[in-house]
Design brief:
By secondary structure, the protein is of the alpha+beta class. It has one domain: Glutaredoxin, CATH 3.40.30.10. The protein has helices at residues 6-19, 43-57, 74-79, 108-121, 128-135, and strands spanning 24-30, 63-69, 87-91, 95-101. Strand 1 (24-30), helix 2 and strand 2 (63-69) form a beta-alpha-beta unit. The model has no long low-confidence stretch (mean pLDDT 90).
Length: 150
Amino acid sequence: MPFLNAQDAEVIRRRFAADLDSPVKLLLFLPATGGLALPGEDWQIAEYTRQILKEVAELSDKIQVEEYGLLSHGDVAQRYNVRLVPAIVFLGREDYGVRYLGLPAGYEFVTLLETIIAVSRGRGEVSEATRSVLAALPAAAHLQIFVTPT
């Protein structure tokens, strides 16, 4: 069963057509890409994440999804500093360091769409006041945002 209904898919397709500037590659890291699954891995969340990204990527030729197993592609996971799954690495003209861990469903689905658009544009919608605060930081910062399903 599709995650998106036809009406929602069409709205997103139009939004992507209007707002995506450059291509975006989504690297999806899963517990494994085939074969044996380790005990304790939550395959249901991984499969939902895979399905969501597949459907989103079908809405624009500027979005590409690549799948990697955390263990079977350890070199790629290490390159992008991925240690937990499911994880999505967003790549635009460059790697902006944007990662999403978990299932981008519910209210977080909008976060997925907005992040794809921001990475495609090469910039996020950040106020000038926030830019000033960030520019004044004495060193690079590692920012993590945690959400819970509602």
